[in-house]
Amino acid sequence: MTKKLYLPEVHMPDEDGHPSTDEMNLGTVMSALADPLRRRVVSELMREPDGAERNCSSFELPVTKSTRTYLFRVLRESGLVCDSFYGNRRAVSLRRAEIDARFPGLLTLLEAEEQQAGARGRATGHLPQSPIPIGVSTATSSARSP
Predict the structure, then answer these.
(1) Are 131 and 36 in contact (CB under 8 A)?
(2) Which H or E element spans position 110?
(3) b/e string for 79-97 if b means 16 or more Cβ within 10 A?
(4) β-strands 81-86, 54-55 pairing
(5) Could you tell me if 117 and 63 are in contact, meaning their C-beta atoms sit under 8 angstroms apart?
(6) Each residue of 32-87: pLDDT tens digit?
(7) What share of the chain is helix, strand, coil (3-state, %, to 5)?
(8) How far is 11 from 19, CA to CA, in rounded Å?
(9) 83 sits in which H/E element
């Protein structure tokens, strides 16, 4: 007598690494949003018209190119953004409809958080800033001083 092995249905991301709506996992999405720079990218995309694409280099992120690539990969693999490739240029757009379908209210919560941070900044005279000032390198030098 042989036993039948039942395996759960496995969904795979598309060829570009975008998960389907059913594959989007709250833990993965929240982990992606935990990073202030990734949350900043999502916030900037939320202010764009629905379906709008932005060139990845248009986000003024104070990180190296390899870190920027990793940042967008995490956002893509979590299902928050969709990548489009145009030759040697990459653009991203917010997967607003899919996020709202899978996690109703999440984008509204992020927008409310951003508005509260802005209101607190206006009340105190301090505008919210990125965790790393733009133009400051996060790379450390390995050269020794004499």
Answers:
(1) yes
(2) helix 106-124
(3) bbbbbeeeeeebbbbbbbe
(4) unpaired
(5) no
(6) 999 999 999 999 999 999 989 999 889 999 999 999 999 999 999 999 999 988 88
(7) 45, 10, 45
(8) 8
(9) strand 81-86
Instruction: Please tell me the pTM assigned to this model.
Output: 0.72
Contact 53, 63 (CB under 8 A): no
> Of 11, 3, 96, 109, which Cα lies nearest the Cα of 51?
96
**Cα–Cα distance, 21 to 86 (Å, whole number):** 24
Token pair 């991301």 in the structure block, residue = 13
Tokens read off for 112: 């409310």
Distance CA 70, CA 37 (A): 12
The one-letter amino acid code at 38 reads R
Q: Are 54 and 92 in contact, with CB atoms under 8 Å apart?
A: yes
Residue 144 token pair:
């020794």
